[in-house]
Design a protein that fits this description.
Layout: E1 18-19, E2 38-39, E3 42-43, H1 60-79, H2 88-95, H3 99-128, H4 131-150, H5 154-173, H6 175-182, H7 188-217, H8 219-240, H9 285-288, H10 301-306, H11 308-311, H12 315-343, H13 351-356, H14 359-385, E4 390-391, H15 400-420, H16 424-452, H17 457-503, H18 506-522, H19 524-527
Antiparallel strand pairs: 1-4, 2-3
């Protein structure tokens, strides 16, 4: 049992472990599985209620529409940071500001403020729901891009980027918890891959498109086009992305999902008279469009704000934070540093041509993100069936077997190629390898932490995103200076070694993950968080 995941000596079923098949092992509840709802031979986790207002019971078309719009909006929002990369030199020359300062305020600041504000938006979303934050975020981003269109000084641009970072927080960080609101465990991988496709496309395609816009229309043109896009996104978010938080008890007979961090509970709700979810009337569409629904939780807002900090003590959160932050930070930094590499001899590319260098990276992300999403669902289910029907979150980490060698080879290869002035195609081949590795690493890390800490998915991703933002801010501040001091070969070899060291944490996380989840569940300090 376990397929390499060590069994725990204290709990038969630590948080995250669940039953995906029909076979009932001795370590699971003795209650009959006959009343449990299934998808084929897979027991649904979490178990949905009988209420038509439970998001888990909504039609797949409606749920996928919400997910698609949020994923697209999140991708466009993510593109706002790196899309300015092809024009960093243009801004430096236009406003007579040194490159490191331009990189810090045009790229780093938006990431830092997004990561910082998520502490407040995630806590607020848990109390008042996600919908108002999605709608307000979209409106603020529209305003920020209009501002950027007419900004005529570097301080104005810098202030606008800070405002844009604040506005970006909900659309960048609340999508993962929306996935857990709408979809069952065995359905989440593909939806997270859709989100990953949009994020990767935003980072890469944004630079391709903006390169041409900057070359023909100047920096202001990129924000004008972004404003037009958000004019389209705003009505889509308002009319389709309804509230996905469900606060009432779920009733499916004896609930099988008894994890301490689950949204379900051990209570047999059929015994609660007069509170049968099946008797609820379906909420009207007009009612669903309300922005304010009152408090959905009695939790303290300020306690929710600080909650992500202690979550970093959870082993699954530590692992996911380091892996996700590392892979995405270096993807962003390749975009920043490649501007200096490709604009200098022997390449001598202009802004539009630098933007075009992201095409192979974008193609790689578009092809392999759906593949990684399919594998993130298919591999754990396949492993669970060979594990007596028992699903372990650690099965998600198998995807790192693909991510680790690709990213390591990609960094070293790019550094050597750029240092020796090899043909451009070699540089693009190597950085594309890292681009392909990113969706596999992000799938493994994000789906793993969601499975381990479903209830705390909002706050966990706040922790992850803040560390990513902080690392990216620091890297964007010193990147150009380090490139000039050490050269591409030494710098990217160092990045490869650092990323490899972080990635190898996968091995102890896989082997000891179940015991670590049990330790967290049994710890008094963890229960107080």
């Amino acid at each position: 049992m376990g397929i390499g995941v060590l069994e725990d000596r204290h709990l038969d079923r630590p948080p995250g472990t669940s039953k995906l098949g029909e076979e009932q092992g001795s370590s699971f509840d003795s209650a009959s599985t006959g009343d449990l709802k299934k998808d084929g031979d897979i027991i649904l986790v979490p178990q949905p209620s009988n209420s038509p207002n439970d998001p888990l019971n909504w039609s797949m078309t409606w749920k996928n529409s919400i997910m698609l719009i949020l994923a697209f909006s999140s991708g466009v929002t993510t593109s706002l940071g790196p899309m300015i990369s092809p024009g960093l030199i243009v801004i430096s020359q236009q406003f007579n500001v040194d490159p490191d300062t331009v990189s810090t305020f045009m790229v780093g600041s938006i990431l830092l403020f997004t990561g910082s504000v998520t502490f407040f938006t995630a806590s607020g979303a848990n109390i008042w729901g996600k919908r108002p934050f999605f709608v307000i975020s979209t409106m603020m981003l529209l305003i920020s891009n209009i501002w950027g269109t007419f900004a005529d000084s570097f301080p104005s641009l810098a202030a606008m980027r800070i405002f844009q970072g604040i506005a970006s927080a909900p659309l960048e960080t609340l999508v993962t918890s929306t996935v857990s609101d709408l979809f069952f465990v065995h359905q989440r991988g593909f939806r997270l891959s859709l989100w990953g496709v949009m994020l990767g496309s935003g980072v890469l395609l944004g630079q391709i498109i903006s390169g041409f816009i900057i070359e023909s229309m100047g920096i202001s043109g990129t924000f004008a086009v972004s404003a037009i896009i958000f004019c389209v996104i705003l009505p889509l978010v308002y009319f389709v992305v309804v509230e996905t938080t469900y606060t009432k008890p779920r009733d499916a007979g004896m609930i099988i999902d008894k994890r301490p961090d689950s949204r379900d509970s051990e209570v047999d709700f059929k015994e609660l008279k007069g509170d049968d979810p099946a008797n609820e009337q379906k909420e009207s569409y007009k009612s669903q469009l309300r922005l304010l629904r009152g408090r959905l939780s009695d939790d303290s807002f300020w306690r929710g704000v600080i909650k992500p900090f202690p979550l970093i003590c959870f082993p699954a959160v530590i692992f996911s934070t380091l892996v996700y932050a590392s892979f995405f930070c270096w993807l962003l930094m390749i975009g920043v540093l490649s501007v200096n590499v490709f604009s200098a001899p022997p390449y001598n590319l202009n802004s539009a041509q630098i933007g075009l260098t992201n095409i192979p990276l974008a193609i790689g992300a578009l092809i392999f993100s759906p593949i990684s999403g399919w594998m993130a669902d298919a591999i754990p289910v396949w492993m669970a069936k060979r594990n007596g029907g028992v699903f372990e979150p650690e099965f998600r980490l198998v995807l790192m077997v693909i991510a680790i060698p690709l990213s390591t080879a990609g960094f070293i290869g790019f550094g050597v190629s750029a240092s020796r002035g090899l043909p451009l195609v070699w540089c693009l081949v190597w950085i594309t390898m890292h681009s392909i590795a990113v969706p596999f690493a992000s799938q493994a890390s994000i789906s793993y932490v969601i499975d381990c800490h479903t209830k705390d998915a909002n706050q966990a991703f706040v922790t992850i995103n803040f560390v990513k933002a902080l690392l990216s801010f620091i890297a964007s501040t010193v990147a150009n200076g380090m490139l000039a001091k050490f050269g591409p070969q030494t710098l990217f070899t160092g990045i490869a070694i650092l990323n490899l060291g972080i990635s190898l944490l996968t091995i102890p996380s896989y082997i000891y993950g179940k015991r670590l989840r049990s330790w967290v569940a049994r710890s008094d300090w963890a229960k107080k968080i």
